[in-house]
Amino acid sequence: ELLMSVPKILVFAGSIRSGSFNARLAALAAKELALAGADVTRISLEDYPLPLYDGDDEQETGVPANAAKLKAMLAAHRGVFIASPEYNASVTPLLKNAIDWLSRPYGEGALKGKPLAVVGASLGQYGGVWAHDETRKSFGIAGPRVVEGLDLSVPTNSLDGKHPRENTEVAARLRDIVGKLAAEI
After folding, report:
1. Contact criterion met (CB below 8 Å) for 119 and 177
2. Dihedrals φ, ψ of 15, to 5°?
3. Coil, strand, or helix at residue 42?
4. Which end of the chain is less congested by CB atoms within 10 angstroms, N or C?
5. At a CB cut-off of 8 Å and minimum separation 6, what does 64 contact?
6. CB burial readout 26-42, b (16+ within 10 A) else e
7. pLDDT (tens digit, 9 = 90+) per residue, 60-71?
C-alpha cells in the first residue's frame, strides 16, 4: 500500500499586533489544516526581525540570518497560508519587508511553484481584498502557484470583537480554503 505524503504547510500572520484578528485567523487556519491532515508549522514574523530591505546593505553584508532562516523554513514546506490585514489598501510593511528579503537573490524566490493562500481581517470589506491582491503581487517574484479560491477578506466589524471561529460563515469559508490548499500539495 502506498502511503500518501502529508502536506507540510507554513502558517503565519502579516501582523504582530497584540490581539490581532489575523493572528487569530492564522491560529484557526493552522487548527483546520491539522484537522485536514496537514503537517502544520505556525510561526510569528515577530520571531524573525529583519532590517528594512536595502540593496546596498544586502551587497555589503549579505542576507540577514533571519531572512535566511525564513527562506529555509519556506523551502521546507509545500504550501503557505498567510493571514494579513491591510494597511492603506495594501500589504503591511512588516509582511512587505519579509517578502522583499524572501525574494532575494533575484530569481531564487522561496515560494517557486508552491500554492499560497492569502486571507485576512481588516476594517473594510474591500481593504482586505486590495491588500491580498497586493500581497500576491508582491510575492510574484518568489513564484508561488496561483490557485483560485484561496482568498478571504473578513470585515472585522462582522466579528463583533469575537474570535473568527465564532462566526460560522468565516469558519466554514476558512475550512474550504484550507481544504483546497491541502489538496493542491
Report:
1. yes
2. -140, 145
3. strand
4. N
5. 50, 51, 101
6. bbbbbbbbeebebebeb
7. 999 999 999 999
Q: Which grid coordinates belong to 156? A: 472585522
Whether 121 contacts 155, CB under 8 Å: yes
Among positive and negative, which fits the CA dihedral 156, 159, 165, 170?
negative
Question: Among candidates 15, 17, 10, 16, which has minimal Cα distance to 43?
Answer: 10
Q: Measured in whole angstroms, how far is the alpha carbon of residue 54 from the centre of its chain?
A: 23
34-77 pLDDT, tens digit per residue, is: 988 899 999 999 999 999 999 999 999 999 999 999 999 999 99
On whether the CB atoms of residues 33 and 1 are closer than 8 A, the answer is no
pTM: 0.89
Residue 109: helix, strand or coil by DSSP? coil
Q: Is residue 7 pLDDT above 90, yes or no?
A: no
